[in-house]
Amino acid sequence: MSRAAARVPVRPRVTVLGAGSWGTTFSKVLADGGSDVTLWARRPELAKEIREAKRNSDYLPGVNLPLAITATADITAALKDAQFVFVSVPSQSLRQNLEQIREIIPADIPVISLMKGVEKGTGLRMSEVLESVLEIDRNRIAVASGPNLALEIAKEQPTAAVVSSTNLETAEAVAKIATNRYFRSFVNTDVIGTEFGGVLKNLIAVAIGIVDGVGYGENTKASIITRGLVEMTDFAVAYGGHPETLSGLAGLGDLIATSGSSLSRNNTAGRLLGQGYSFADVVKSMQQTAEGLASVAPVLELAAAKGVDMPICRQVSEVLAGTLDPKDIAPHLTTDDDSGPQGERTLDARQDHGGAALRRSLKRAFDQLRNRGRSS
Ligand SMILES: NC(=O)C1=CN([C@@H]2O[C@H](COP(=O)(O)OP(=O)(O)OC[C@H]3O[C@@H](n4cnc5c(N)ncnc54)[C@H](O)[C@@H]3O)[C@@H](O)[C@H]2O)C=CC1
Ligand SMILES: O=C(CO)COP(=O)(O)O
C-alpha cells in the first residue's frame, strides 16, 4: 500500500460486513471515532431496524446506535464507495461470504478481519482466507483483536485492541479510525501472533467454562489460564508469531477478558458442557457464534503438524466428543508427555513453564530468524 493510500480521509466512508454483535459494536466504535459507516446485514428486517430505529435489539439490547451508522441488506450498495471494509461474520462462513463480494469490492482499500477463528478443512487464518479468496496484496489486509467483549464496548466501557498488518502504514491507518474516547487501537506487524491469540484464547475460555460448569473454583481456573497461555504461546511461535504478542492485548488480555466473563459465548458454551449438556444441545442452544467450538479440530491438526503439545485444547475436544467426562478435565495435570520420546519435552512436561515457555518460545523465534537469514 502506498504512503498516499495510507492517509486517512477526514470523514472516512467505512463498510462493515456482518451485523451480529461484533460487527454492530465495531460499527459504533468507528462511527464514534468519526467515520460514516454502512453496515451490511443478511436479513433485510435487521438492516431496516438498524437504519430506521438505530437499534439492533437481537444482538445489542438497550444500545442506541449513532446516527452516522446506516444499514442495508444489499451488499453491492453496502460496498459502493467504501474506503475501508471490515469483515465480521462467523469464520466458517467467511469464504462463502467473500465469494459474493470478490468482483465488487473496491480496489486498493484496506480490508480488515474482526474474526477470531480458523477455517475448518484448510486450517487457514481469516486474513489468509481474505488474501486467497479476494486475491489481494497482504499489505492491504489487517486484523483487529483484543479484550473486546461486544456488549461492554457497546456500553462505552473503555478498552483497547491491537490492529495488525504486515504493512505498518495499513495498521496505523486502520488504528486511527478504530480509536475513539472509549476504544484505543494499538498497532503491530505480527499478524500471525495477533490472529492466533484471538483464536486460541477461545479454546482456553471453553475449558474455563467447563470447569466452571463442573463447579471447580479459582485454583483450577488460574492454573488453566496460566498453562493455557503457555499453549497459546508455543503454538503461535511454532507458526512464526512473536511471543510478546501473546503476552499483549491479543493474547493474555483477551484470555483474561474471555475466561472471566459470562458475556463470552465460548465461556458460556463451556459452562453448559460442564453442566452435562451434550455438544449437540449446546450448539442448538447458542443464539450467537462461539468460534472455539469450530476451531478446536483445525487447531489440534495444526498443532500436530508442528509437534506442539496442547493438553488443554485436546481435553476440550474430548469433552466436545463426549469421550471425557467434564469433571475429569484437568489438562494442566496431564503427564502424557512423560512417555514421549523427546527427553527435553519430558522434562518440560513436569516443569512449570511460565517463564521457561517464554524463553523457549523466544529461542525458537530467534532460531527461525537465524535460519531465515541463512537461507536468504
Ligand atoms: N461478539 C464479540 O464480543 C466479539 C466477536 N468477535 C468475533 O467476531 C466474529 C463475528 O462474531 P459475532 O458478531 O459475535 O457473531 P454473531 O453470531 O453475533 O453474528 C454473526 C453475524 O454474521 C452474519 N452472517 C453472515 N453470514 C453468515 C452465515 N453464512 N452464517 C451465519 N451467520 C452469518 C449473521 O447474520 C450475524 O449478523 C467472530 O469471529 C467472533 O469471534 C471478536 C471480538 C468480539
Ligand atoms: O472475542 C471476544 C472477546 O474479546 C468475544 O468472546 P466470545 O466470542 O467468547 O463471546
Automatic annotation (TrEMBL):
Predominant localisation class: cytoplasm
Keyword terms: Cytoplasm, Lipid biosynthesis, Lipid metabolism, NAD, NADP, Nucleotide-binding, Oxidoreductase, Phospholipid biosynthesis, Phospholipid metabolism
InterPro entries xref list: 6-PGluconate_DH-like_C_sf, 6PGD_dom2, G3P_DH_NAD-dep, G3P_DH_NAD-dep_C, G3P_DH_NAD-dep_N, NAD(P)-bd_dom_sf
Chain intervals for the UniProt region annotation (Disordered): 327-358
Active site: K201 (proton acceptor)
Swiss-Prot/TrEMBL catalytic activity: sn-glycerol 3-phosphate + NADP(+) = dihydroxyacetone phosphate + NADPH + H(+); sn-glycerol 3-phosphate + NAD(+) = dihydroxyacetone phosphate + NADH + H(+)
Residues bound to NADPH: S21, W22, R42, R43, Y59, K116, A150, R265, E291
Pfam family, one: NAD_Gly3P_dh_C
Segments forming domain Glycerol-3-phosphate dehydrogenase NAD-dependent C-terminal: 190-329
Residues at which sn-glycerol 3-phosphate binds: K116, G146, K201, D254, S264, R265, N266
Gene3D superfamilies associated with the record: N-(1-d-carboxylethyl)-l-norvaline Dehydrogenase, domain 2, NAD(P)-binding Rossmann-like Domain
Domain Glycerol-3-phosphate dehydrogenase NAD-dependent N-terminal positions: 14-170
Signal peptide coordinates: none
Family designation: Belongs to the NAD-dependent glycerol-3-phosphate dehydrogenase family.
Record HAMAP family: NAD_Glyc3P_dehydrog
Protein name in the entry: Glycerol-3-phosphate dehydrogenase [NAD(P)+]
Organism: Herbiconiux aconitum
Source organism phylogeny: Bacteria, Bacillati, Actinomycetota, Actinomycetes, Micrococcales
Gene assigned in the entry: gpsA
